[in-house]
Amino acid sequence: MSLTHLSNMCSHLNNVSKARLGLTSIVDTKMHRNLILAMQQQGLIGTIVRGGRSPPPPHLLLGQPTATSVAADGSSAAGSSIVETEPVTQANIASRRLWLGLKYWQSEPVLGKITPVSKPKRRITMDLQGLRRVIRGSRSGTVDGLRSPGECLFLATDRGIMEARQCVEKKVGGLVLCRVE
Questions:
Q1: Three-class secondary structure of residue 31 per DSSP
Q2: Model pTM?
Q3: Is 80 exceeded by the pLDDT of residue 49?
Q4: In this structure, is the dihedral angle defined by the CA atoms of residues 164, 73, 22 and 61, taken in order, positive or negative?
Q5: What pLDDT does residue 69 have?
Q6: What is the DSSP secondary structure assignment for residue 145, as one 8-state letter?
Q7: Alpha carbons 147 and 164: distance in angstroms, whole number
Q8: Closest Cα to residue 126, out of 140, 146, 136?
Q9: Where are the domains of the chain?
Q10: Could you provide one GO biological process annotation from this protein's UniProt record (predicted)?
Q11: In the predicted model, is pLDDT for residue 40 greater than 80?
Q12: Would the pLDDT of 43 be above 50?
């Protein structure tokens, strides 16, 4: 898991949100795919399409997809949120992109400021007690508490990437990845 790529993704999504773009692409890695799926479950991202360098057809971003869905681990699944537009081959595996359709509400981006918490030189982990304090709004270690209802904190756990409230429900801790305000 490369936290350098996570920092690049966070700054890219910040720039896209400030520019008020409706469509963007990021590099397709396992960590990015799982983090974007977690963001979509929280309602921050609209649609996710897995494709190549060129953008997907507009009907995949606007309506119900007709292509096969792909789970986070790459296997086909009926309930997944990622749509695949091109087959994966050895020739195009390095150029795979995740195309994200961003959400807007009353002309404001739903995805606000996204900041990485753990950095490549300093990985921050939290246990269950620390997560409970952060969710209640208190500071725990170097992580500030959640201040607003729409704020999210994403963690990498042994059960996958989850939001902090889900981690407390499932009683697990993990590596703090990023905060979305």
A1: helix
A2: 0.85
A3: yes
A4: negative
A5: 45
A6: P
A7: 13
A8: 140
A9: 3-109, 117-180
A10: translation
A11: yes
A12: yes
